[in-house]
Protein backbone atom coordinates (compact mmCIF):
# COMPACT_ATOMS: atom_id res chain seq x y z
CA UNK A 1 0.00 0.00 0.00
CA UNK A 2 2.80 2.42 0.89
CA UNK A 3 4.57 1.61 -2.38
CA UNK A 4 1.43 2.25 -4.40
CA UNK A 5 0.79 5.51 -2.55
CA UNK A 6 4.37 6.66 -3.16
CA UNK A 7 4.08 5.72 -6.84
CA UNK A 8 0.86 7.71 -7.20
CA UNK A 9 2.49 10.73 -5.55
CA UNK A 10 5.51 10.45 -7.87
CA UNK A 11 3.24 10.31 -10.91
CA UNK A 12 1.30 13.32 -9.67
CA UNK A 13 4.55 15.23 -9.17
CA UNK A 14 5.64 14.38 -12.71
CA UNK A 15 2.37 15.72 -14.11
CA UNK A 16 2.65 18.93 -12.09
CA UNK A 17 6.23 19.45 -13.22
CA UNK A 18 5.07 19.33 -16.82
CA UNK A 19 2.35 21.89 -16.11
CA UNK A 20 3.84 24.29 -13.54
CA UNK A 21 6.83 26.54 -14.19
CA UNK A 22 6.99 27.47 -10.50
CA UNK A 23 7.40 23.86 -9.41
CA UNK A 24 10.09 23.36 -12.06
CA UNK A 25 11.98 26.38 -10.68
CA UNK A 26 11.76 24.88 -7.16
CA UNK A 27 13.18 21.65 -8.58
CA UNK A 28 16.03 23.65 -10.15
CA UNK A 29 16.72 25.26 -6.75
CA UNK A 30 16.99 21.83 -5.14
CA UNK A 31 19.28 20.62 -7.91
CA UNK A 32 21.41 23.79 -7.60
CA UNK A 33 21.77 23.32 -3.84
CA UNK A 34 22.83 19.71 -4.37
CA UNK A 35 25.31 20.73 -7.06
CA UNK A 36 26.80 23.41 -4.80
CA UNK A 37 27.18 20.99 -1.90
CA UNK A 38 28.80 18.35 -4.11
CA UNK A 39 31.23 20.91 -5.59
CA UNK A 40 32.30 22.05 -2.12
CA UNK A 41 32.75 18.46 -0.95
CA UNK A 42 34.78 17.53 -4.00
CA UNK A 43 37.03 20.56 -3.58
CA UNK A 44 37.64 19.88 0.11
CA UNK A 45 38.49 16.22 -0.43
CA UNK A 46 40.82 16.99 -3.36
CA UNK A 47 42.62 19.68 -1.35
CA UNK A 48 42.92 17.32 1.62
CA UNK A 49 44.51 14.70 -0.64
CA UNK A 50 46.99 17.25 -1.96
CA UNK A 51 47.88 18.35 1.58
CA UNK A 52 48.53 14.73 2.51
CA UNK A 53 50.60 13.87 -0.57
CA UNK A 54 52.64 17.08 -0.69
CA UNK A 55 52.76 17.96 3.02
CA UNK A 56 51.10 21.35 2.55
CA UNK A 57 50.72 23.49 5.68
CA UNK A 58 47.32 24.91 6.63
CA UNK A 59 45.22 26.20 3.75
CA UNK A 60 48.18 26.65 1.39
CA UNK A 61 47.26 25.52 -2.12
CA UNK A 62 49.54 23.24 -4.08
CA UNK A 63 50.36 25.69 -6.87
CA UNK A 64 51.43 28.43 -4.43
CA UNK A 65 53.88 26.22 -2.54
CA UNK A 66 57.36 27.83 -2.70
CA UNK A 67 59.12 24.47 -2.92
CA UNK A 68 58.14 20.79 -2.91
CA UNK A 69 60.33 18.00 -1.57
CA UNK A 70 61.48 16.10 -4.69
CA UNK A 71 60.48 12.63 -3.50
CA UNK A 72 56.91 13.82 -2.92
CA UNK A 73 56.63 14.49 -6.64
CA UNK A 74 56.41 10.70 -7.06
CA UNK A 75 52.72 11.30 -6.33
CA UNK A 76 52.38 12.36 -9.98
CA UNK A 77 53.22 8.97 -11.57
CA UNK A 78 51.40 7.30 -8.67
CA UNK A 79 48.25 9.18 -9.68
CA UNK A 80 48.87 8.07 -13.25
CA UNK A 81 49.01 4.46 -12.02
CA UNK A 82 45.64 4.88 -10.29
CA UNK A 83 44.17 6.24 -13.53
CA UNK A 84 45.70 3.30 -15.40
CA UNK A 85 43.94 0.93 -13.02
CA UNK A 86 40.69 2.83 -13.63
CA UNK A 87 41.21 2.34 -17.36
CA UNK A 88 41.67 -1.42 -16.98
CA UNK A 89 38.51 -1.73 -14.88
CA UNK A 90 36.48 0.41 -17.27
CA UNK A 91 37.63 -1.65 -20.25
CA UNK A 92 36.12 -4.68 -18.58
CA UNK A 93 32.85 -2.98 -17.72
CA UNK A 94 32.27 -0.91 -20.85
CA UNK A 95 34.01 -0.04 -24.09
CA UNK A 96 32.62 3.41 -24.91
CA UNK A 97 33.81 6.83 -23.88
CA UNK A 98 31.83 8.27 -20.94
CA UNK A 99 29.35 11.00 -21.88
CA UNK A 100 29.95 14.46 -20.40
CA UNK A 101 27.30 17.12 -19.88
CA UNK A 102 28.08 19.09 -23.06
CA UNK A 103 27.81 15.99 -25.25
CA UNK A 104 24.73 14.82 -23.37
CA UNK A 105 22.88 18.09 -23.95
CA UNK A 106 23.96 18.31 -27.58
CA UNK A 107 23.27 14.74 -28.68
CA UNK A 108 21.30 12.89 -26.01
CA UNK A 109 18.69 15.36 -24.81
CA UNK A 110 20.35 15.76 -21.39
CA UNK A 111 20.56 12.04 -20.68
CA UNK A 112 23.75 11.52 -18.64
CA UNK A 113 24.11 7.96 -17.29
CA UNK A 114 25.05 8.11 -13.61
CA UNK A 115 27.91 5.68 -14.17
CA UNK A 116 29.39 8.06 -16.72
CA UNK A 117 29.13 10.97 -14.27
CA UNK A 118 30.79 8.93 -11.55
CA UNK A 119 33.54 7.86 -13.95
CA UNK A 120 34.38 11.36 -15.21
CA UNK A 121 34.23 12.81 -11.70
CA UNK A 122 36.46 10.11 -10.21
CA UNK A 123 39.05 10.39 -12.98
CA UNK A 124 39.15 14.19 -12.71
CA UNK A 125 39.39 13.99 -8.92
CA UNK A 126 42.33 11.58 -9.07
CA UNK A 127 44.09 13.67 -11.72
CA UNK A 128 43.72 16.89 -9.75
CA UNK A 129 44.13 15.38 -6.30
CA UNK A 130 47.47 13.80 -7.21
CA UNK A 131 48.67 17.13 -8.63
CA UNK A 132 48.41 16.84 -12.43
CA UNK A 133 48.10 20.17 -14.25
CA UNK A 134 44.32 20.06 -14.65
CA UNK A 135 41.44 21.66 -12.77
CA UNK A 136 38.38 20.22 -11.06
CA UNK A 137 35.91 22.30 -13.08
CA UNK A 138 35.06 19.39 -15.39
CA UNK A 139 34.18 17.31 -12.33
CA UNK A 140 32.03 20.10 -10.88
CA UNK A 141 30.03 20.46 -14.08
CA UNK A 142 29.77 16.69 -14.51
CA UNK A 143 28.60 15.90 -10.99
CA UNK A 144 26.14 18.82 -10.90
CA UNK A 145 24.73 18.04 -14.34
CA UNK A 146 24.81 14.29 -13.72
CA UNK A 147 22.72 14.51 -10.55
CA UNK A 148 20.28 16.81 -12.35
CA UNK A 149 19.99 14.29 -15.19
CA UNK A 150 19.28 11.40 -12.83
CA UNK A 151 16.56 13.37 -11.03
CA UNK A 152 15.09 14.66 -14.29
CA UNK A 153 14.92 11.22 -15.87
CA UNK A 154 13.33 9.75 -12.75
CA UNK A 155 10.67 12.48 -12.98
CA UNK A 156 10.26 11.77 -16.72
CA UNK A 157 10.90 15.37 -17.73
CA UNK A 158 10.49 16.38 -21.34
CA UNK A 159 13.63 16.63 -23.45
CA UNK A 160 13.81 20.44 -23.33
CA UNK A 161 13.20 20.55 -19.56
CA UNK A 162 15.83 17.88 -18.91
CA UNK A 163 18.43 19.83 -20.89
CA UNK A 164 17.65 22.96 -18.88
CA UNK A 165 17.89 21.07 -15.59
CA UNK A 166 21.24 19.55 -16.55
CA UNK A 167 22.56 23.00 -17.45
CA UNK A 168 21.24 24.40 -14.17
CA UNK A 169 22.97 21.69 -12.14
CA UNK A 170 26.28 22.13 -13.94
CA UNK A 171 26.15 25.93 -13.71
CA UNK A 172 25.23 25.85 -10.04
CA UNK A 173 28.19 23.60 -9.20
CA UNK A 174 30.64 25.80 -11.10
CA UNK A 175 29.16 29.00 -9.67
CA UNK A 176 29.50 27.55 -6.17
CA UNK A 177 33.20 26.86 -6.75
CA UNK A 178 33.83 30.48 -7.78
CA UNK A 179 31.31 32.08 -5.44
CA UNK A 180 29.85 33.73 -8.53
CA UNK A 181 26.17 33.07 -9.37
CA UNK A 182 26.16 35.08 -12.62
CA UNK A 183 29.22 33.20 -13.83
CA UNK A 184 27.55 29.89 -13.04
CA UNK A 185 24.31 30.89 -14.75
CA UNK A 186 25.99 32.04 -17.95
CA UNK A 187 28.25 28.98 -17.93
CA UNK A 188 25.03 26.97 -18.08
CA UNK A 189 23.62 29.10 -20.90
CA UNK A 190 26.73 29.34 -23.09
CA UNK A 191 28.61 26.11 -22.44
CA UNK A 192 26.06 23.47 -21.35
CA UNK A 193 22.70 24.50 -22.83
CA UNK A 194 24.12 26.32 -25.82
CA UNK A 195 21.63 29.19 -25.93
CA UNK A 196 19.96 31.89 -23.87
CA UNK A 197 16.36 30.76 -23.77
CA UNK A 198 13.37 32.43 -22.07
CA UNK A 199 12.33 29.10 -20.63
CA UNK A 200 15.76 28.56 -19.03
CA UNK A 201 16.43 31.98 -17.48
CA UNK A 202 14.49 31.58 -14.24
CA UNK A 203 15.40 27.96 -13.36
CA UNK A 204 19.09 28.38 -14.25
CA UNK A 205 19.42 31.64 -12.31
CA UNK A 206 17.61 30.17 -9.31
CA UNK A 207 19.84 27.09 -9.36
CA UNK A 208 23.03 29.18 -9.58
CA UNK A 209 21.98 31.36 -6.63
CA UNK A 210 21.04 28.27 -4.62
CA UNK A 211 24.39 26.64 -5.40
CA UNK A 212 26.41 29.68 -4.31
CA UNK A 213 24.27 30.16 -1.19
CA UNK A 214 24.79 26.53 -0.25
CA UNK A 215 28.54 26.83 -0.73
CA UNK A 216 28.69 29.94 1.46
CA UNK A 217 26.58 28.24 4.12
CA UNK A 218 29.08 25.37 4.17
CA UNK A 219 31.92 27.86 4.63
CA UNK A 220 33.48 27.42 1.20
CA UNK A 221 36.14 29.92 0.13
CA UNK A 222 35.65 30.86 -3.55
CA UNK A 223 38.50 30.45 -6.02
CA UNK A 224 38.73 34.09 -7.07
CA UNK A 225 39.21 36.80 -4.48
CA UNK A 226 38.05 40.38 -4.93
CA UNK A 227 40.76 42.53 -6.48
CA UNK A 228 41.15 46.25 -6.96
CA UNK A 229 41.42 47.88 -10.39
CA UNK A 230 42.55 51.29 -11.49
CA UNK A 231 39.85 51.93 -14.07
CA UNK A 232 40.31 52.57 -17.77
CA UNK A 233 40.15 56.23 -18.76
CA UNK A 234 42.26 56.80 -21.91
CA UNK A 235 41.26 55.86 -25.44
CA UNK A 236 44.68 54.31 -25.96
CA UNK A 237 43.96 52.01 -23.01
CA UNK A 238 40.92 50.60 -24.81
CA UNK A 239 42.94 49.98 -27.96
CA UNK A 240 45.84 48.42 -26.09
CA UNK A 241 43.64 46.16 -23.97
CA UNK A 242 41.59 44.91 -26.92
CA UNK A 243 44.85 43.81 -28.53
CA UNK A 244 45.07 41.21 -25.78
CA UNK A 245 42.05 39.48 -27.32
CA UNK A 246 43.89 38.86 -30.59
CA UNK A 247 47.00 37.57 -28.80
CA UNK A 248 44.89 35.28 -26.58
CA UNK A 249 43.06 33.88 -29.61
CA UNK A 250 46.31 32.71 -31.22
CA UNK A 251 47.68 31.36 -27.94
CA UNK A 252 44.42 29.49 -27.31
CA UNK A 253 44.55 27.85 -30.74
CA UNK A 254 48.19 26.86 -30.16
CA UNK A 255 47.27 25.37 -26.78
CA UNK A 256 44.39 23.28 -28.17
CA UNK A 257 46.47 22.13 -31.15
CA UNK A 258 49.36 21.21 -28.86
CA UNK A 259 47.17 18.97 -26.70
CA UNK A 260 45.88 17.19 -29.81
CA UNK A 261 49.41 16.78 -31.24
CA UNK A 262 50.71 15.26 -28.01
CA UNK A 263 47.73 12.87 -27.86
CA UNK A 264 48.37 11.83 -31.45
CA UNK A 265 52.07 11.36 -30.79
CA UNK A 266 51.40 9.25 -27.72
CA UNK A 267 49.03 7.00 -29.69
CA UNK A 268 51.62 6.57 -32.45
CA UNK A 269 54.10 5.32 -29.85
CA UNK A 270 51.63 2.45 -29.24
CA UNK A 271 51.96 2.81 -25.48
CA UNK A 272 49.32 0.81 -23.58
CA UNK A 273 46.61 3.25 -22.39
CA UNK A 274 47.03 2.32 -18.69
CA UNK A 275 50.75 3.18 -18.90
CA UNK A 276 50.36 6.59 -20.55
CA UNK A 277 49.39 8.62 -17.44
CA UNK A 278 52.23 7.01 -15.48
CA UNK A 279 54.73 8.26 -18.07
CA UNK A 280 52.94 11.61 -18.15
CA UNK A 281 53.27 11.90 -14.39
CA UNK A 282 56.98 11.16 -14.62
CA UNK A 283 57.39 13.90 -17.26
CA UNK A 284 55.61 16.37 -15.00
CA UNK A 285 58.03 15.80 -12.12
CA UNK A 286 60.94 17.96 -13.40
CA UNK A 287 58.50 20.72 -14.41
CA UNK A 288 56.96 20.73 -10.93
CA UNK A 289 60.44 20.75 -9.35
CA UNK A 290 61.32 23.84 -11.36
CA UNK A 291 58.00 25.57 -10.58
CA UNK A 292 55.28 24.14 -8.29
CA UNK A 293 52.92 26.69 -9.91
CA UNK A 294 52.37 24.24 -12.79
CA UNK A 295 50.67 21.72 -10.50
CA UNK A 296 46.91 21.29 -10.11
CA UNK A 297 44.63 23.97 -11.56
CA UNK A 298 46.77 26.88 -10.45
CA UNK A 299 44.39 28.55 -7.97
CA UNK A 300 47.03 29.59 -5.47
CA UNK A 301 49.52 30.70 -8.10
CA UNK A 302 46.84 32.79 -9.83
CA UNK A 303 46.34 34.86 -6.69
CA UNK A 304 50.08 35.50 -6.46
CA UNK A 305 50.57 36.31 -10.15
CA UNK A 306 47.47 38.49 -10.32
CA UNK A 307 48.89 41.20 -8.05
CA UNK A 308 52.44 40.17 -7.13
CA UNK A 309 55.65 41.92 -8.18
CA UNK A 310 57.11 39.46 -10.71
CA UNK A 311 59.72 40.00 -13.40
CA UNK A 312 58.97 39.53 -17.08
CA UNK A 313 61.41 36.61 -17.29
CA UNK A 314 59.70 34.83 -14.39
CA UNK A 315 56.27 35.40 -15.97
CA UNK A 316 57.43 33.96 -19.31
CA UNK A 317 59.07 30.96 -17.63
CA UNK A 318 55.97 30.16 -15.56
CA UNK A 319 53.74 30.61 -18.62
CA UNK A 320 55.81 28.21 -20.72
CA UNK A 321 56.08 25.58 -17.97
CA UNK A 322 52.35 25.72 -17.15
CA UNK A 323 51.37 25.45 -20.81
CA UNK A 324 53.69 22.48 -21.30
CA UNK A 325 52.48 20.82 -18.09
CA UNK A 326 48.81 21.16 -19.10
CA UNK A 327 49.50 19.71 -22.55
CA UNK A 328 51.44 16.76 -21.08
CA UNK A 329 48.75 16.09 -18.48
CA UNK A 330 45.90 15.93 -21.00
CA UNK A 331 47.95 14.39 -23.80
CA UNK A 332 49.12 11.49 -21.64
CA UNK A 333 45.69 10.58 -20.28
CA UNK A 334 45.04 12.60 -17.13
CA UNK A 335 41.39 13.62 -16.96
CA UNK A 336 40.24 17.20 -16.50
CA UNK A 337 39.86 20.40 -18.41
CA UNK A 338 41.57 23.63 -19.24
CA UNK A 339 39.03 25.92 -17.56
CA UNK A 340 41.15 27.15 -14.65
CA UNK A 341 44.43 26.47 -16.45
CA UNK A 342 43.31 28.91 -19.17
CA UNK A 343 42.40 31.49 -16.51
CA UNK A 344 45.84 31.14 -14.94
CA UNK A 345 47.64 31.23 -18.27
CA UNK A 346 45.54 34.25 -19.26
CA UNK A 347 46.65 36.13 -16.15
CA UNK A 348 50.27 35.43 -17.01
CA UNK A 349 49.75 36.36 -20.66
CA UNK A 350 48.00 39.60 -19.74
CA UNK A 351 50.86 40.65 -17.50
CA UNK A 352 53.42 39.70 -20.13
CA UNK A 353 51.47 41.77 -22.67
CA UNK A 354 51.43 44.79 -20.36
CA UNK A 355 55.19 44.55 -19.75
CA UNK A 356 55.95 44.18 -23.46
CA UNK A 357 53.72 47.17 -24.32
CA UNK A 358 55.57 49.24 -21.74
CA UNK A 359 58.89 48.21 -23.29
CA UNK A 360 57.78 49.03 -26.84
CA UNK A 361 55.71 52.11 -25.97
CA UNK A 362 57.28 53.79 -22.94
CA UNK A 363 54.80 55.89 -21.02
CA UNK A 364 51.73 53.86 -21.98
CA UNK A 365 51.64 52.47 -18.41
CA UNK A 366 49.05 49.73 -18.78
CA UNK A 367 48.03 48.71 -15.29
CA UNK A 368 49.30 45.14 -15.05
CA UNK A 369 46.46 43.94 -12.83
CA UNK A 370 43.85 45.18 -15.30
CA UNK A 371 45.78 43.58 -18.17
CA UNK A 372 45.95 40.33 -16.20
CA UNK A 373 42.17 40.29 -15.74
CA UNK A 374 41.53 41.05 -19.41
CA UNK A 375 43.98 38.33 -20.45
CA UNK A 376 42.42 35.91 -17.98
CA UNK A 377 38.98 36.26 -19.54
CA UNK A 378 40.12 36.48 -23.17
CA UNK A 379 42.26 33.35 -23.09
CA UNK A 380 39.54 31.43 -21.25
CA UNK A 381 37.05 32.45 -23.94
CA UNK A 382 39.49 31.41 -26.67
CA UNK A 383 39.83 27.95 -25.13
CA UNK A 384 36.55 27.29 -23.34
CA UNK A 385 34.14 29.71 -25.02
CA UNK A 386 31.50 31.74 -23.21
CA UNK A 387 32.37 35.45 -23.50
CA UNK A 388 29.53 36.46 -21.18
CA UNK A 389 30.56 33.81 -18.67
CA UNK A 390 34.11 35.10 -18.41
CA UNK A 391 33.03 38.74 -18.44
CA UNK A 392 30.72 38.16 -15.50
CA UNK A 393 33.53 36.29 -13.73
CA UNK A 394 35.64 39.45 -13.90
CA UNK A 395 32.68 41.65 -12.93
CA UNK A 396 31.90 39.56 -9.86
CA UNK A 397 35.57 39.60 -8.87
CA UNK A 398 36.15 43.35 -9.36
CA UNK A 399 32.74 45.10 -9.36
CA UNK A 400 34.31 47.30 -12.05
CA UNK A 401 31.85 47.88 -14.91
CA UNK A 402 34.29 49.93 -16.99
CA UNK A 403 36.87 47.16 -16.94
CA UNK A 404 34.16 44.57 -17.61
CA UNK A 405 33.28 46.39 -20.82
CA UNK A 406 36.89 46.08 -21.96
CA UNK A 407 36.92 42.43 -20.91
CA UNK A 408 33.78 41.73 -22.93
CA UNK A 409 35.22 43.47 -25.99
CA UNK A 410 38.49 41.54 -25.80
CA UNK A 411 36.62 38.30 -25.17
CA UNK A 412 34.40 38.82 -28.22
CA UNK A 413 37.47 39.56 -30.34
CA UNK A 414 39.17 36.38 -29.09
CA UNK A 415 36.01 34.36 -29.73
CA UNK A 416 35.59 35.75 -33.27
CA UNK A 417 39.22 35.07 -34.21
CA UNK A 418 39.10 31.51 -32.86
CA UNK A 419 35.83 30.78 -34.68
CA UNK A 420 37.24 32.15 -37.92
CA UNK A 421 40.61 30.38 -37.79
CA UNK A 422 39.82 27.27 -35.76
CA UNK A 423 36.09 26.80 -35.28
CA UNK A 424 36.04 24.89 -32.00
CA UNK A 425 36.31 25.30 -28.26
CA UNK A 426 38.50 22.83 -26.36
CA UNK A 427 35.66 20.44 -25.50
CA UNK A 428 34.13 20.47 -28.98
CA UNK A 429 37.60 20.12 -30.54
CA UNK A 430 38.09 16.89 -28.59
CA UNK A 431 34.67 15.70 -29.80
CA UNK A 432 35.76 16.55 -33.34
CA UNK A 433 38.88 14.41 -32.92
CA UNK A 434 36.59 11.53 -31.91
CA UNK A 435 34.53 11.97 -35.09
CA UNK A 436 31.58 13.87 -33.60
CA UNK A 437 30.13 16.98 -35.26
CA UNK A 438 29.43 18.98 -32.10
CA UNK A 439 30.37 22.67 -32.23
CA UNK A 440 28.44 23.70 -29.12
CA UNK A 441 25.93 22.32 -26.63
CA UNK A 442 23.08 23.42 -28.91
CA UNK A 443 20.63 20.54 -29.22
CA UNK A 444 21.32 18.62 -32.41
CA UNK A 445 20.39 15.27 -30.92
CA UNK A 446 16.99 15.32 -32.60
CA UNK A 447 18.78 15.51 -35.96
CA UNK A 448 20.73 12.36 -35.08
CA UNK A 449 17.60 10.61 -33.86
CA UNK A 450 15.52 11.48 -36.92
CA UNK A 451 16.96 8.72 -39.09
CA UNK A 452 16.01 7.19 -42.42
CA UNK A 453 14.75 4.14 -40.56
CA UNK A 454 12.33 6.23 -38.53
CA UNK A 455 11.07 8.31 -41.46
CA UNK A 456 10.75 5.65 -44.16
CA UNK A 457 7.54 4.12 -45.46
CA UNK A 458 7.86 0.43 -44.78
CA UNK A 459 7.01 -2.44 -47.13
CA UNK A 460 7.24 -0.63 -50.47
CA UNK A 461 5.81 -2.26 -53.60
CA UNK A 462 8.41 -4.64 -55.08
CA UNK A 463 8.83 -6.75 -58.18
CA UNK A 464 11.54 -9.06 -59.57
CA UNK A 465 13.99 -7.28 -61.86
CA UNK A 466 13.83 -10.19 -64.36
CA UNK A 467 10.18 -9.77 -65.41
CA UNK A 468 9.30 -8.20 -68.76
CA UNK A 469 7.66 -4.84 -69.32
CA UNK A 470 4.49 -6.65 -70.42
CA UNK A 471 4.34 -8.58 -67.14
CA UNK A 472 5.06 -5.42 -65.18
CA UNK A 473 2.18 -3.59 -66.90
CA UNK A 474 -0.11 -6.46 -66.07
CA UNK A 475 0.85 -6.48 -62.39
CA UNK A 476 0.92 -2.71 -61.89
CA UNK A 477 -1.59 -0.88 -64.08
CA UNK A 478 -1.53 2.92 -64.23
CA UNK A 479 -2.87 4.44 -61.03
CA UNK A 480 -2.06 1.46 -58.84
CA UNK A 481 1.29 2.80 -57.58
CA UNK A 482 3.68 5.57 -58.56
CA UNK A 483 6.95 3.61 -58.19
CA UNK A 484 8.11 0.02 -57.78
CA UNK A 485 11.32 -1.24 -56.16
CA UNK A 486 13.02 -4.04 -58.09
CA UNK A 487 14.70 -7.02 -56.45
CA UNK A 488 17.33 -9.44 -57.74
CA UNK A 489 17.47 -13.22 -57.36
CA UNK A 490 18.60 -12.86 -53.71
CA UNK A 491 15.68 -10.52 -52.97
CA UNK A 492 18.10 -7.59 -52.67
CA UNK A 493 17.70 -4.10 -54.05
CA UNK A 494 18.17 -3.83 -57.84
CA UNK A 495 16.82 -0.34 -58.64
CA UNK A 496 13.61 1.66 -58.82
CA UNK A 497 11.11 2.05 -61.67
CA UNK A 498 8.46 4.72 -62.13
CA UNK A 499 5.17 3.28 -63.35
CA UNK A 500 4.54 6.14 -65.79
CA UNK A 501 7.90 5.51 -67.48
CA UNK A 502 7.01 1.86 -68.07
CA UNK A 503 3.76 2.88 -69.82
CA UNK A 504 5.44 5.53 -71.95
CA UNK A 505 5.29 5.27 -75.74
CA UNK A 506 8.19 3.51 -77.38
CA UNK A 507 8.91 1.09 -74.53
CA UNK A 508 9.24 -2.47 -75.87
CA UNK A 509 6.94 -4.89 -74.11
CA UNK A 510 9.41 -7.81 -74.32
CA UNK A 511 12.19 -5.77 -72.71
CA UNK A 512 13.37 -6.82 -69.22
CA UNK A 513 12.16 -4.31 -66.65
CA UNK A 514 15.69 -4.04 -65.18
CA UNK A 515 16.67 -2.05 -68.29
CA UNK A 516 14.42 0.79 -67.08
CA UNK A 517 15.68 0.71 -63.49
CA UNK A 518 17.09 3.91 -61.99
CA UNK A 519 19.85 4.07 -59.34
CA UNK A 520 20.52 0.31 -59.00
CA UNK A 521 23.41 1.09 -56.60
CA UNK A 522 22.00 4.09 -54.69
CA UNK A 523 20.37 3.32 -51.32
CA UNK A 524 20.36 4.73 -47.80
CA UNK A 525 21.06 2.71 -44.69
CA UNK A 526 18.47 3.11 -41.90
CA UNK A 527 20.94 4.79 -39.51
CA UNK A 528 21.52 7.86 -41.74
CA UNK A 529 20.29 11.05 -40.05
CA UNK A 530 17.96 13.54 -41.67
CA UNK A 531 20.76 15.97 -42.57
CA UNK A 532 22.60 13.23 -44.47
CA UNK A 533 19.37 12.13 -46.15
CA UNK A 534 18.62 15.65 -47.43
CA UNK A 535 22.17 16.05 -48.72
CA UNK A 536 21.79 12.76 -50.57
CA UNK A 537 18.59 13.96 -52.24
CA UNK A 538 20.37 17.14 -53.35
CA UNK A 539 23.41 15.24 -54.63
CA UNK A 540 21.38 12.74 -56.68
CA UNK A 541 18.71 15.17 -57.84
CA UNK A 542 15.92 12.64 -57.24
CA UNK A 543 12.71 12.68 -55.24
CA UNK A 544 12.71 9.13 -53.83
CA UNK A 545 15.36 6.79 -52.42
CA UNK A 546 15.14 3.22 -51.16
CA UNK A 547 16.26 2.39 -47.62
CA UNK A 548 18.15 -0.88 -47.39
CA UNK A 549 20.65 -2.72 -45.22
CA UNK A 550 24.32 -2.67 -46.27
CA UNK A 551 23.76 -6.13 -47.72
CA UNK A 552 20.91 -4.85 -49.91
CA UNK A 553 17.86 -6.12 -48.02
CA UNK A 554 15.01 -3.69 -48.73
CA UNK A 555 13.53 -1.99 -45.65
CA UNK A 556 11.46 0.91 -46.97
CA UNK A 557 11.18 3.98 -49.16
CA UNK A 558 11.80 7.69 -48.57
CA UNK A 559 10.50 10.61 -50.63
CA UNK A 560 12.11 14.03 -50.52
CA UNK A 561 8.80 15.79 -49.83
CA UNK A 562 8.15 13.61 -46.77
CA UNK A 563 11.69 14.05 -45.41
CA UNK A 564 11.59 17.83 -45.72
CA UNK A 565 8.19 17.94 -44.02
CA UNK A 566 9.45 15.82 -41.10
CA UNK A 567 12.52 18.02 -40.81
CA UNK A 568 10.42 21.20 -40.82
CA UNK A 569 8.06 19.75 -38.19
CA UNK A 570 10.95 18.76 -35.90
CA UNK A 571 12.65 22.11 -36.40
CA UNK A 572 9.46 23.94 -35.45
CA UNK A 573 9.04 21.73 -32.38
CA UNK A 574 12.64 22.42 -31.39
CA UNK A 575 12.10 26.18 -31.71
CA UNK A 576 8.95 26.00 -29.62
CA UNK A 577 10.85 24.11 -26.93
CA UNK A 578 13.59 26.73 -27.09
CA UNK A 579 11.12 29.48 -26.23
CA UNK A 580 9.20 27.39 -23.72
CA UNK A 581 5.98 27.27 -25.74
CA UNK A 582 5.35 23.56 -25.17
Give the arrangement of secondary structure elements.
Elements: H1 2-19, H2 21-54, H3 75-93, H4 101-107, H5 114-129, H6 137-154, H7 159-178, H8 181-193, H9 198-217, H10 235-268, H11 276-290, H12 299-307, H13 312-331, H14 339-360, H15 368-384, H16 387-398, H17 401-421, H18 426-433, H19 445-449, H20 452-455, E1 457-458, E2 462-464, H21 469-475, E3 483-487, E4 493-498, H22 499-502, E5 523-524, H23 530-540, E6 544-548, E7 554-559, H24 560-578
Parallel strand pairs: 2-3, 5-6
Antiparallel strand pairs: 1-7, 3-4, 6-7
Feature tags:
582 residues; 7 strands; 5% strand; elongated; 64% helix; 24 helices; CBS-domain; 3 domains; Clc chloride channel; mainly alpha
Describe, in plain words, how this protein is organized in 3D:
With 582 residues, the chain is mainly α. It has three domains: 11-223, Clc chloride channel; 235-433, Clc chloride channel (Orthogonal Bundle), CATH 1.10.3080.10; 446-574, CBS-domain (Roll). Helices cover 64% and strands 5% of the residues. The chain contains 24 helices and seven strands. It has helices at residues 2-19, 21-54, 75-93, 101-107, 114-129, 137-154, 159-178, 181-193, 198-217, 235-268, 276-290, 299-307, 312-331, 339-360, 368-384, 387-398, 401-421, 426-433, 445-449, 452-455, 469-475, 499-502, 530-540, 560-578; strands spanning 457-458, 462-464, 483-487, 493-498, 523-524, 544-548, 554-559. Helix 3 (75-93) runs antiparallel to helix 11 and helix 12 runs parallel beside helix 14 (339-360). The longest helix has 34 residues, at 21-54. It is elongated, with a radius of gyration of 29 Å. The mean pLDDT is 82.
